[in-house]
Amino acid sequence: MLARPSTIGQERTLPREECDMEPVLLFVVEDAFQITGRGCVLAPGPAAEPGAQPIRVGDRLLLRKPDGQSVDTVIQAVEMLGRRPRPKVITAPILLPREITKDDVPIGTEVWLYPRDQ
Fold it and tell me: Which tens digits make up the pLDDT trace of 26-58?
């Protein structure tokens, strides 16, 4: 089992052997916005898998853009956008590492979650 280094405050690329597990569709991007000095926040549309594994900072993601390109990245932070009624399926906006901008993640991008090592 590989030790996973901390991702807080730093960007990293994923070693190839960490990307061998099949990801699960988490959500499709409904909106994206840029926070100066922090990075790109993805606002989810409806969750694809009710009851899917909860997300955590450092979880590995695969972004599949509508044009077919894919990007491996990690969750930098989980954001909260005000108070809303609790939905049946909880999804939260996620902050991506600084090198990924709003322009890199068009509306309709699929966000896939790689399973965690247990």
Answer: 889 999 999 888 899 998 876 655 555 678 899
Q: Residue 90 is encoded by which pair of tokens?
A: 């909880």
Which amino acid, 27?
A: F
At residue 75, the 3 state secondary structure works out as coil
Q: Is residue 101 part of a domain?
A: yes
Q: Give the H/E segment covering residue 94.
A: strand 94-95
Domain residues for the domain of 58 are 39-113
DSSP, collapsed to helix, strand or coil, labels residue 104 as helix
CATH code at position 61: 2.40.30
Per-residue pLDDT, averaged over 77-106, amounts to 75
Residues 6+ apart with CB under 8 A from 35: 41, 95
Domain membership flag for residue 85: yes
